[in-house]
TrEMBL record:
Species annotation: Paenibacillus silvestris
Spans through the membrane: 35-55, 67-87, 93-117, 129-150, 162-180, 225-245, 257-274, 286-304, 310-329, 350-368, 374-390
Annotated signal sequence range: none
Protein's UniProt name: MFS transporter
Claim: Chaperone is one of the keywords in the record: no
GO cellular component: plasma membrane
Gene3D superfamilies with a match to the protein in the record: MFS general substrate transporter like domains (1.20.1250.20)
Main subcellular location of this protein, as a coarse class: membrane
Length: 398
């Protein structure tokens, strides 16, 4: 019973991570003229947010050791809630820049800490469902924003509502804070969860590395990091610029575009829910490969000029992306050793956020200088590069 309650708290924590991630992109077509920002300024804000997550994810191991995972989760949720409330009242671009810093810092440490915890102590379907709850938050963000844009013509009310949801989650985390200590005691007593070696005893476990430099020398690590880079690149580029593409190239209204972006995140969410069950029968490696093929098919469909057909492709990209990130994370202790997984989880989070930090803004610059019509070509290229990297890892680690 306590273990189930603990999982629910962890799942709720990932909702708080997902809601802000999809909010800026869906609201940007309305925010931009309201505050007098340039088209590509959303990329700068995204870069600042992701930069904060890189810093906090790299520091996550030390922070969790000092304060505990429960306290870090609570503090992170409060940081994001306060930043989102500030967004709703921001009078200018400068304030958005300042508030983007705590918004990013709030997400990074808890992301790395919880991913490491679940990869080490729970089976693959729990990792998929964990990120499914991130998708719940990411799907809710555009839906909420679309409602307030359509009904109240106000993106600020959308941010206010999301901040209230975050504060509510923070209250839940505060009330359940003692649960983290009880579960830790239960784990030490022996038996909350299966250990890594018990779940996949036949998998390759590589020896422990003595330093950060030697961790990077483990075979397959560099290729895996490249896969994380392009995964987050494609996921965040589609989420940030998808609505702008639908408005600018497909002549949709801002509220309709935001609704379709919510379906993209909905594809990720539902996909992770379903693949959580599939992982009970299918190996992560096979599931990741099939999912990447689905995402590529979706990317090709987005290129098609037929009305509404390209929207199906957008949803297919979301469904295809669904199990890739949690699958790669869950493979970390099995492929590279439990002794190396804590260090590598922080590295993977940092590289993933690097993809979120730089690739969407780079596309923003490209689109500003050329045309937003390049959006589907860039998204498809990122997916292909990600698949090439994961397949190379599969050849290295058999």
């Amino acid at each position: 019973m306590m273990a189930t309650m603990f999982l629910i708290v962890i799942y709720l924590s990932f909702i708080s991570l997902g809601i802000p991630d999809s909010l800026l992109g869906s609201a940007w077509p309305v925010i931009r003229p309201d505050i007098g920002a340039s088209f590509g300024f959303a990329g700068i804000l995204s870069m600042i947010v992701a930069g904060g997550t890189i810093v906090s994810s790299l520091a996550s191991g030390r922070l969790v050791q000092r304060a505990g995972t429960g306290n870090i989760t609570l503090i992170s949720c409060c940081l994001t809630a306060g930043a989102l409330l500030g967004f709703s009242m921001a009078p200018s671009m400068i304030w958005l820049v300042v508030l983007a810093i705590p918004l990013g810092l709030g997400g990074g440490a808890i992301d790395a800490a919880l991913n490491h915890y679940v990869a080490e102590n729970y089976k693959a379907h729990h990792m998929n469902w964990l990120h499914c709850f991130w998708g719940v938050g990411a799907t809710l963000g555009p839906i909420i924003m679309s409602f307030y844009i359509a009904e109240h013509n106000s993106w600020r009310d959308g941010y206010t509502t999301v901040s209230m949801i975050q504060f509510t989650l923070a209250i839940v985390l505060f009330v359940t804070l003692p649960l983290w200590k009880r579960v830790a005691v239960s784990r030490e007593a022996g038996g909350l969860n299966s250990k890594v070696s018990q779940e996949k005893p036949g998998e390759l476990i590589q020896p422990a590395a003595s330093s950060k430099a030697s961790v990077l020398q483990i075979k397959g690590v560099k290729q895996t990091l490249i896969a994380f880079l392009f995964y987050c690149g494609v996921e965040s580029t589609a989420g940030l610029w998808g609505a702008s593409y639908l408005v600018g190239a497909r002549n949709m209204t801002a509220e309709t575009a935001a609704g379709w972006i919510s379906l993209y995140y909905g594809g990720i969410t539902i996909g992770r829910l379903i693949t959580g069950f599939i992982t009970m029968k299918v190996h992560n490696r096979v599931l990741i490969r099939c999912s990447q093929i689905i995402a590529i098919v979706g990317g090709v469909i987005v290129l098609l000029p037929q009305p509404q057909v390209f929207l199906v492709g957008l949803i297919l990209i979301g469904i295809g992306l669904a199990p890739i990130y949690p699958g790669l994370l869950h493979e970390t202790p099995y492929r590279f050793g439990s002794e190396n997984s804590a260090k590598l989880m922080g590295f993977q989070m940092a590289v993933a956020y690097t993809g979120s930090t730089f690739l969407p803004p780079l596309f923003g610059v490209l689109a500003t200088q050329t045309t937003i019509n390049l959006f589907p070509f860039v998204v498809l290229a990122f997916i292909v590069l990600m698949m090439m990297s994961t397949e190379k890892v599969n050849r290295i680690i058999k």
